[in-house]
Queue: 2 jobs
Job 1
Amino acid sequence: MSNSRYAPAVCLLLSGCGAEGAQSALRPGGIAAAKIATLTWVMTVTFTVIFFLVVAVMLLAVFRSRQAEPAHPPFGRSGLIIAGGVVLPLVVVIPLLIYSLETSAALRMPEDALTIRVIGHQWWWEVEYPEHGVVTANEIHIPAGEPVRLELLSADVIHSFWVPALNGKRDMIPGIVNEFWIQADRPGEYRGQCAEYCGLQHAHMALVVVALPPEEFAAWAHQRDEPETAPDTELEREGLAIFLRAGCSRCHAIRGTPAAGELGPDLTHIGSRETLGAGTIPNTHGNLMGWIGNAQGVKPGVFMPAMYLPAEELHALTQYLEGLK
Ligand code: CUA
């Protein structure tokens, strides 16, 4: 028998521990997630102790012979029932209730925070910075050490916004604006994932929150605010012409060009994104060509149609998009 057959189970077990993964509620990266993690540990430890206590008492009752039973139990029968069935639960449950209410109160939305609007789509995230006039997708840049207010919406079905290291989950419901907030105490990257089944590619609806030192965030927002300038090289100019001619601009916008489609992600700075297809594949030259040529082969069911372009045109288009930093 080979050990390899156990490999998937072992991997699952290890990944469940979340020791090194950035996407773990047990490795909080911000004040809100830290409060939730502490509450989780307190509840888990308390109820584990109670579970073993109950099992021990149950086993005692099962294995103790009737003859060994004293004629007069220490507290009398009703005393035991009152102590174990009424007093003990109250002593445990009431402090836990107070503690969890306190935690809920501490998770209230902070005032005067930067607002970012996140709109869930099948199967990607639209990210808008109303105060900066910036629109992007699948990557949320925030200043570290500050609370960030989120307005969560959906363009189609119910999604759920969840970056475990930065706060709990919040549903994104069509027709409703749900308010939420996140905070990263330190600069870094924090992975998130849609947490409500939303169709075929629900599992490939990931996002990353990039927390930057506040001055770097200001510089980032200022740079993103600028519309794209005219392409530099002949190849890139040809790429833009193909983008406009082949129909890409009916779904995608690139600020500074005539492309103003709203169905798919804004591509003004696509070249600087880490992944394609909301965390599905790394954003490399080859992957971008493959994605444009046949997105269905990478993420079946996605609303991006296959673009049947000659190889030279695909290359020019890819070169142009990669240059949009
Ligand atoms: Cu969006 Cu699951």
Job 2
Amino acid sequence: MKLSIIGAGYVGLTCGACLAEIGHTVLCVDTDDDRIARLNENDLPIYENGLAELLARNRRANRVAYTANMPSAVRTSDAVILAVGTPSGPDGHVDLSMIEAAARDIAPHLSPDAVVIVKSTVVAGTARRLRELISRERGGRAVEVASNPEFLREGSAVADFMDADRIVIGADDERTLAKMRRLYQPLRRRGVPVIETTTINAELIKYAANAFLAMKIGFINDVADLCEAVRGDVSAVSKGIGLDSRIGPTFLKPGPGYGGSCFPKDTLAFAALGREVNAPQRLVETLTVQNELRKKKLAKRAVDRLGAAQYGDRVAVLGAAFKAGTDDMRGSVALTLVPLLMDAGYRVSIYDPQANRNAAELLPDGDFHDCPYAACKGVEAAFVITDWDAFRSLDIGRLVSVMRGRTIFDFRNLYEPSAFKRHDVDYISIGRAPALGQRRKAAAEAGSGISVSEHV
Ligand code: UDX
Ligand code: UDX
């Protein structure tokens, strides 16, 4: 099929590359001329594992092209996929202004047999409202609108598309369904399960999935706090419950609170919809408050433990992206922690394998480095806040040798506390007892004020 994808962002580019890979011809469209110009120079505006290679290969095969000329792209397309931003509005409701504008823009150019596919995360009922909006813009000549939410995780988006757990097709009539079946035939042939349902159900599946996944994270983060209070070990508890096939081991890693472009906005939108239709989503309401408070709480407790900086004191923050595998800073705990550290008088060295450029734009007073050891040179303390694999294999001895202080905060439990025993370091992680250095341990045992059960 000939496809246009409106919105060359994290979702639009990944979906475009994968749909080309399974045999379709894709035009990636964006209103941002600079973004299109960079793409035509094979310069991706985002980092996503494997995406650059996939786009380049399909571009060479003439299955992917980039254009800012939306009318000409839409006119020649069998399907037009909307993957524009659907950010949070002021009261948590999803802001549909961009997707409504995109639908209005494409309406006059759609061929009569085209199908519009809503890929962006939108509140239940949006596909039906966009169908009416497009029909009005076309003097009553309606076109079909389908809902096809994505379940892509940044950092593994290509694999999540090609080896999807399921494809959700929301269609409200047989003709639309037939076209959507054609679109995903190659993946269905590979055995990917396909759910065919109404557009409303498809829109609800997306929000309910994200809200539930976020709930698992919020739950294990609360359990981590409980473990700290009773000297438990959240890693053991997470493993113990995760082996129950009804729970499953994924999305049970404790951390500083979920970030990203989706969980924060989608949980707020899900809760707002519930309030609007008098079906309050009380668990998700609580989750949204708890998650943002957690980012502040962990950051503040660490800064309180460090105490105010002496003149010129410096700390290192390893990781800035909201998770490993991406350069995306949206919702990252770095955006809470670094300002708090600076307010306490510290200068902050930052290193992230992929997100330095984006972080420098959002945290301009940070000092950026291109390696973790350079970032930790002369620092009072180091924070590990993003779960990059590169951080799991750090040479602890080398890291400690360049630091001035002896405190390491691990917001991702990347290490075993025992790894710090011979380095006289205070290693403070989440949901586990701190591993105190010998000097501090002796002081603590002598009752000099540091509580051995004290946590970040
Ligand atoms: C977005 C939504 O945030 C997410 O909810 C949805 O599931 C998929 O689309 P993402 O790809 O991360 O996810 O958005 P973003 O990276 O902001 O890219 C959106 C792109 O659309 C931007 O490049 C923007 O320039 C472009 N855009 C926006 C258009 O081309 N036309 C428009 O009318 C509006
Ligand atoms: C999420 C959903 O997983 C995906 O299906 C949807 O399409 C978009 O939103 P994404 O936000 O890219 O994907 O990444 P994800 O891996 O879900 O992580 C989201 C946040 O939760 C990150 O901040 C991550 O660090 C955190 N997280 C994830 C945890 O704290 N613990 C976990 O066990 C898993």
